[in-house]
Design goal:
8 strands, 8-stranded mixed sheet, alpha+beta, 7 helices
């Protein structure tokens, strides 16, 4: 079932090593079919070079496997929570990409220091708190719950990325490919922000009017970037 969805999710997953976002099996992409409520996700712990489209696992929004000969990603419960909380997204990516993960391990959000960031991510990329000892008992579920809670006061479409403290990044988008695109952008922004602070430890965020100009020329009713 949903063979085209499996194929798209396989192709999106294969972009993670292409863009240097994963080491070994440290990452996953999913994409949901909103009509059925099923999503396809990478199987847990399978080497990328061994993956095939038919290996993608179909899961429902209760976290139950509908179809697949492998176990789904161990992060599947987090994806479930995000799909339930963010009704306008169609794809999710989780990686341990080194620059974004470095900010996560430091427990810091990524400030907007320039227009590359502002073009795609509106404001500071948030870093959510650690889970409590009690919350860790349902680690993956509560990671999703914590992210969703953080975005009750943030626009998840204007900021399609988050850092989980001491863990790593999640990104999302209208489908798996856009979620991967946002993961690549996040990694580049994280790298540039870290280097920016190395070069000038006293640097401050970009002016708000500059951030607004660059974000809204690509997003919203009055966007004019592109064809």
């Amino acid at each position: 079932m949903l063979e085209e969805l499996k194929k798209r999710v396989y192709e999106a997953n294969m972009l993670l090593p292409k863009y240097g976002l994963v080491t070994f099996t440290w990452g996953n992409v999913s994409e949901i079919d909103r009509e059925t409520g099923y999503f396809a996700i990478k199987p847990s712990g399978v080497d990328y070079e061994k993956l095939r489209p038919e290996d993608m696992v179909i899961v429902d929004l209760d976290g139950k496997v509908v179809e697949g000969h492998y176990n789904p990603s161990s992060d599947t419960p987090t994806h479930v929570e995000l799909y339930k909380a963010f009704s306008n997204i169609g794809g999710i990516v989780h990686t341990h990409s080194p620059w974004a993960t470095s900010w996560a391990q430091a427990g810091r959000g990524i400030p907007c220091y320039g227009t590359t960031h502002a073009d795609y991510l509106y404001g500071t990329v948030p870093c959510v708190r650690n889970l409590t000892k009690e919350e860790l008992k349902a680690y993956e579920v509560n990671t999703g719950v914590l992210i969703a809670e953080a975005f009750q006061t943030n626009d998840y479409e204007a900021m399609p990325a988050v850092l989980c403290k001491n863990h790593g990044p999640f990104t999302w988008g209208k489908d798996g490919l856009e979620a991967v695109h946002n993961a690549v952008v996040l990694e580049e922004v994280a790298k540039m922000a870290a280097r920016c602070e190395m070069i000038n430890p006293k640097v401050g965020p970009a002016p708000q009017e500059l951030m607004d100009k660059h974000y809204y020329r690509k997003h919203g009713e009055n966007a004019y970037y592109g064809q």
